[in-house]
Write a structure and sequence with these properties.
Structural class of chain B: mainly alpha
Oligomer: heterodimer
Strand content of chain B: under 5%
Radius of gyration of chain B: 23 Å
Shape of chain A: elongated
Largest interface: A-B, 44 and 53 residues
Shape of chain B: globular
Largest sheet of chain A: 9 strands, antiparallel
Structural class of chain A: alpha+beta
Strand content of chain A: 25-35%
Number of helices of chain A: 6
Largest sheet of chain B: 3 strands, antiparallel
Strand order of the largest sheet of chain B: 1-2-3
Number of helices of chain B: 11
Helix content of chain B: over 70%
Helix content of chain A: 25-40%
Distance between the termini of chain A: 55 Å
Order of helices and strands of chain A: HEHEEEEHEEEEHEEHH
């Protein structure tokens, strides 16, 4: 098919204008829950056996490259770091990192990556379904457990990452979910819910470690139950 | 096979056609570049962006005569590439997916070249357009997974070499202690940024030097990353030694002002390697049939 160059150029231009228009039309709007709560105010400081204590423990940072001041685009709108203690004296560190919009470019950081970047060695990692709430639809939340170590300090981490109503910490899976949501015109919010404990018992044998993990997961469940609805909506959806 | 591959078009047609396409390209990509300038180009690992763009434009200008010879027929491959590229653009832009947004330039440009210019132009624009890959932002997760091991490797290597040379140096993670001083191998020192920039320069060098001998080109391309890595090691070692002998003030000074030293070392090393290879080729072929070098 012969087409004069100028006409061909015209067709190319037309296609480009179409692509430009399409990119504008396909851009999703922000989806924000009715009114996201102020985590610092709304998350209960005391519930069940647990009460907040001043943070003497240093939590692993939520941002990744901060050692020379150049940090990755801080992807969080709200960050909450607290330490809680129960009546038996156990200390659990809580980290909540929430952002109103997740995109392909800026997403909640996986603790596996954050911890490694800060020099922790991840000795074990497993994923399991944990019951956080009795609500049927949200019953089994996929939680990732990490056993990490850094210069003698062993930290057990349990976390989940929620993107909209999708639970996964796998990069490609989350990206795919974001892609589908964006095609529907939606930008989901996202949160990292992380509980961790330092264990001084260096015999990393099954029972102790498993108990500790269960303890922090029960902590998260109790936290959820005790939170107001606005916070519940941010933790699980 | 047509004897006339190019249409006998008037200059007005040739320039006109490309001018029209250029308008489209500006419409699509000026917003993208403005976005990059406000974000990615401000970071350490993205700062080489404007240079890459300038180099690409320069490389393309070298082949403009070929681009201006237009083809008479329609290229289905060209249209396919263009459509694929435009789809990536639209999705990438809508989804805030910079890799797709910026990367779409490659199929879009190549598609335009195939659609408008004579067939021989495509091969000549391939390298310049692919050079744009250096502009595509690296996803942060990928970046993090490279930086940490790289920093570790750099610290380890510097410590090993200086220790064997008899210096009182020790290492803990990415912290080096020499004499009374402590130096932290930060992300900027991992050399990743310069390795990317140097890889670009190295590939550019290979392209421009235009050796006809394939294996010389292959060796040079493979040498790009190691040379860049070594140049970074040398820079970090020099920094450590300057601090050791002249104090942390001098070390800080060196650190702030000597970024270019690495580029000089790398480029110099690369140039030397090139000369060595050419000499070797001549030597091996017993000085007969010398390796022909086209003028750059």
């Amino acid at each position: 098919m012969r087409l004069q160059p100028l006409a061909r150029a015209g067709v190319i231009l037309a296609l480009m204008v179409l692509a430009f228009a399409a990119s504008r039309l396909l851009t999703p709007r922000v989806q924000v829950p009715q009114s996201p709560a102020e985590l610092a105010l709304a998350v209960p400081k005391q519930f069940g056996d647990w009460h907040e204590v001043p943070s003497l423990l240093v939590q692993a940072s939520l941002a990744v490259n901060t050692d020379d001041g150049t940090s990755n685009a801080q992807p969080y709108d709200q960050v909450l770091l607290r330490t809680y203690q129960d009546n038996a004296g156990h200390l659990v560190m809580l980290a909540l990192a929430y952002s109103t919009r997740q995109s392909q470019d800026v997403r909640v950081h996986k603790p596996d990556v954050c911890y490694s970047a800060q020099g922790y060695v991840i000795k074990a990692s497993e994923r399991l379904a944990v019951s956080i709430t009795t609500h049927r639809a949200l019953n089994a939340v996929p939680v990732t457990r990490l056993l990490t170590e850094k210069s003698g300090r062993t930290e057990l981490v349990s976390y989940w990452i929620r993107t909209g109503n999708f639970y996964s910490s796998s990069g490609p899976a989350v990206r795919w979910h974001l892609f589908k949501e964006a095609l529907k015109g939606r930008v989901p919010d996202g949160i990292l819910v992380r509980a961790s404990q330092l264990v001084t018992d260096t015999s990393l044998q099954g029972a102790h470690v498993d108990d500790a993990f269960k303890r922090q997961e029960h902590f998260l469940a109790a936290l959820y139950q005790a939170s107001p609805d606005t916070v519940k909506q941010m933790l699980l959806r | 096979m047509n004897t006339a591959e190019a249409t006998a078009s008037s200059p007005a047609q040739k320039f006109g056609a490309w001018a029209v396409v250029l308008c489209g390209l500006l419409l699509l990509y000026v917003p993208v570049y403005l976005g990059l300038a406000q974000s990615y180009w401000q970071t350490d690992h993205g700062a080489h962006g404007p240079i890459i763009l300038a180099v690409t434009l320069w490389l393309l200008s070298r082949v403009k005569d070929d681009l201006l010879q237009l083809r008479p027929d329609f290229s289905v491959a060209g249209l396919t590439l263009l459509l694929a590229g435009l789809a990536c653009y639209a999705i990438g832009r809508a989804q805030s997916f910079p890799q797709m947004e910026v990367g779409s330039q490659i199929p879009v440009l190549l598609g335009c070249v195939l659609l408008l210019a004579q067939r021989s132009a495509f091969a000549k624009t391939l390298f310049p357009v692919l050079f744009l890959l250096f502009l595509v932002p690296v996803p942060t997760t990928v970046l993090d997974s490279i930086l940490v091991p790289l920093k570790g490797l750099v610290s380890w290597t510097v410590e090993e070499i200086l220790f064997r040379a008899g210096y009182p140096i020790a290492r803990s993670g990415v912290m080096l202690a020499i004499g009374p001083y402590q130096l932290l191998i930060a992300d900027a020192c991992s050399g990743l940024n310069s390795m990317v920039a140097l890889s670009g320069i190295g590939l550019l060098y290979v392209y421009i030097a235009g050796h006809t001998s394939r294996w010389i080109n292959i060796v040079l391309v493979l040498a790009v990353l190691p040379v860049a890595f070594l140049a970074n090691i040398l820079r970090v070692m020099m920094l450590v030694l300057v601090t050791y002998y002249f104090g942390s003030g001098a070390g800080q000074n060196f650190h702030d002002h000597a970024g270019y030293i690495e580029i000089v070392i790398a480029f110099g090393g690369f140039f030397l390697l090139d000369m060595l290879l050419v000499w070797l080729a001549k030597f091996l072929s017993g000085n007969k049939a010398a390796v022909k070098e086209p003028a750059p």
